[in-house]
Write a structure and sequence with these properties.
Number of domains: 2
Strand content: 15-25%
Bound molecules: zinc ion
Shape: rod-shaped
Number of helices: 2
Order of helices and strands: HHEEEE
Largest sheet: 4 strands, antiparallel
Structural class: alpha+beta
């Protein structure tokens, strides 16, 4: 039988799940950075000329490219 120190058993018992959780956190943070461009776009509908447009900038309001009217994001 192989004699293993109690300290080594405890270290493996504690660091195993910690390593798994750390790798999962790394994976999800990397995945969140590489979201597709469509998911980052805000969609606006112009209240003046009803033109629908999208911008990837994170602004609550943006100008309509057709008439210049300021509009709130419909979906962000
Ligand atoms: Zn417009």
């Amino acid at each position: 039988m192989i004699a293993i120190d109690l300290g080594i058993i405890l270290m493996i018992y504690v660091s195993g799940p910690l390593l798994v959780i750390g790798l999962a956190a790394l994976f999800y943070s990397l995945r969140a950075k590489h979201r597709p461009m469509r998911a980052r776009e805000n969609i606006y509908e112009c209240s003046h000329c009803s033109h629908v447009y999208a911008f990837a900038r994170n602004r609550p309001m943006d100008r309509c490219p057709r008439c210049g009217n300021l509009n709130e994001a419909v979906r962000s």
